[in-house]
Amino acid sequence: MAQALHPNVAGSLFATDGKRRPLQDALMAVTFVLGFLSFITSFFHGLHLLSSWTGLVGLGVGIYGQWISVTTRERFVLILGLGAAGVGFLISMAHGGLFGGLGG
Questions:
Q1: pLDDT score recorded for residue 76
Q2: Residue 101 burial (C-beta neighbours within 10 Å; 0-12, 13-18, 19+)
Q3: Mean pLDDT by 10 residues, the chain (104 residues)
Q4: How far apart are CA 99 and CA 2, in angstroms?
Q5: Residue 10's pLDDT is what?
Q6: How far does Cα 79 stand from its chain's mean position?
Q7: Cβ 102 vs Cβ 55: under 8 Å
Q8: What is the pTM of this model?
Q9: What are the Cα distances from residue 47, in Å, to 7, 9, 11, 77, 84?
Q10: Cα–Cα–Cα angle for 75, 66, 71, rounded to 5 degrees
Q11: How many CB atoms within 10 Å of residue 90?
Q12: Following DSSP, what letter does each residue of 3-63 receive, concatenated?
């Protein structure tokens, strides 16, 4: 009955290897939060500066997080954050971009 002590998580989407990875977890959380913020604020025309910068930073953090990620759980959340950051960034670029209205 060894399987009772060690459940099979190999097929789970959120499978982990049981090790702590604080850097990957932090990058995952930051990417998700920045992506969500960029996506939501991109629908408000006056917030294009906030949305474009959070989207750009979210894309950078997410790409680095993908590069060093180890588990499927990390990659899954990073892809959600990267997608939201990318959509938010592109919509905000259409509304005025990174410096729209500030340079004259």
A1: 94
A2: exposed
A3: 57 66 93 97 92 96 96 93 97 89 59
A4: 60
A5: 56
A6: 6
A7: no
A8: 0.82
A9: 47, 42, 41, 25, 16
A10: 40
A11: 15
A12: HHHS---TT-TT---S---HHHHHHHHHHHHHHHHHHHHTTSGGGHHHHHHHHHHHHHHHH
Residue type, 22: P
In a 3-state reduction of DSSP, which class is residue 104?
A: coil
DSSP letters, 53-81, are: HHHHHHHHHHHHHHHH--SHHHHHHHHHH
Distances (CA, A) of 2 to 5, 7, 11, 19: 6, 9, 18, 21
- Two tokens at 45? 């025309």
User: Would you tell me how many other CB atoms lie within 10 Å of the CB of residue 86?
Assistant: 18
